[in-house]
Target: Transcriptional regulator, LysR family
Amino acid sequence: MDDLETRELRYFIAVAEELHFGRAAERLGIAQPPLSRAIRRLEQRLGVRLLDRDRRGVALTGAGRVLLREGAAALDGVAAAVRRTRRAGDPGRPLVLASKAGASHALLRRLLDAVAADPGAAPVEVLLCEVGEQARLLRDGHADVALMHRPVDDLAGFDTEDLHTEGQVAILPAGHPLAARERLTLAEVRDVPGLPMARWPRLDGTYPDGPGPEVHTQSQLAQLVALGRTLLVIPASSRAWQWPEHVAVPVDDAPDITTVIAWPAASRSLPVAALVRAAAALRDETSRPAP
Model:
């Protein structure tokens, strides 16, 4: 029998993440003996060993690592299905649009204005988030659509519509000598003595190697740039959060960034489809030659 209960997955994931039966039992709010028995039954049903147990503790086997990854995704999918089902049962609810704080501000403003001007459009609630969080919010059902950026964001499993392609700029402390330049190259901004580039987390949560500070919020980044501790390269439209202590200089050879509107590929929501059409209409209006 291949069926797994969500309770079994929750139990296993707690043990796999804690690597300790006592801590996992406390996290789950149950006693340790029934948790141990549940994991043994799960291993027997699957016919594989998920955990290595010895005096030193608990370790995941290769099969256990697979179930941790796939099981976590399955639980996320169940939670997302519950959220989307409840929201679908409320026809008056707003659509939730996730967007990185400070990014694509002008485009987002125009899209919200277009929705407000259309009496037949579903209302839109904006959920501002940090870098790279839009994908998680779409997958777990907290957001219906998102403004995301190719090639830097994780677009796997989403349908997308391209909205805007642009170059990038370096955000520098206003007093730095490079801030007086009209244009820069990536080589110039990657090797600035005393002013290393900030490091954002990768999609897996790890940080790239380098001397720059590890950052995960826009506010951290803004203050570190103003203090002369770091610089960064971002899409030109993301300058909405720029401080007076910052200067933006175009970086000629930085790869272009394309803003897209993204939604789960399985979505059959008519309000989502209408919002995507409205966003595409704004793109087409912008690209239309002047008469």
